[in-house]
Amino acid sequence: MTNSRPRPISPHLQIYKPQLTAVLSSLHRVSGLFLSAAAVGLAGWVITLALGESVFAIVQQFLSSGYGTGLIALGLFGFFYHLANGLRHLCWDRGYGYDIKNVYRSGWIVVACSITAGIVAILIAL
Amino acid sequence: MDRRCVLYYGRDCCHSDRALNDYLDRELVNTPSSEPGLQHWRWQRGSALVLTPFGLWFIFQMLLLPDFEYQTVISWLATMFNSFAMTVLLIALLVHSLLGLQVVIEDYIANPLQRTLIRITRFIGIAILAATITSIFTI
Question: What ipTM was estimated for this complex?
């Protein structure tokens, strides 16, 4: 059998209308990946503390720059989102909130909580 | 049949719990609970429960810190409680990250590269963790 054009590859994301459920699910994974990188950054930050003041100063200089501040802000939103949606997953694990109505309701609660918590944290940090 | 198993089994979402569903299929016919997929699931949830308070604690602590001068941060980390809490946080964080990354790798990358990548991420993660904990206790 010869294929004149390549077969579509699973999971066929392009044929679905974006829905809150799918978008939040992907966002959980994307934020998880970003936070994994941030975890490595946090570990590196702690290690530079042990390496001495001069090394720590270089890292702090980067973190207080525009890029650094942006990454920290993104990390805060990512953390609060992943935390809120993670708690939503834990509720599902216990068997709560499975019907469509509650899945959407908890989804919007997660969106509202994570955006609010992110903004509040950034305002306190400024 | 256990109510929770039926609910897990009935889930239609998704990638992150695919392994769980596979393993629970077997658990329903009485396979021992030491199955790697179930262990993965338990560690992921366990580390999530640890990360909830410790992650929030760390962010609050950072927001409360008056400045990020070397001495300020060092004296913050040097206290008994803070160094202990940071150790717990970093262990849970790395465990949770490694489990999550493993699922992502399993979903998008085929064997034999899949196994190799999972081993590499684990090795790097454990090395970072060892270096970080050593750093905390040398301060």
Answer: 0.87
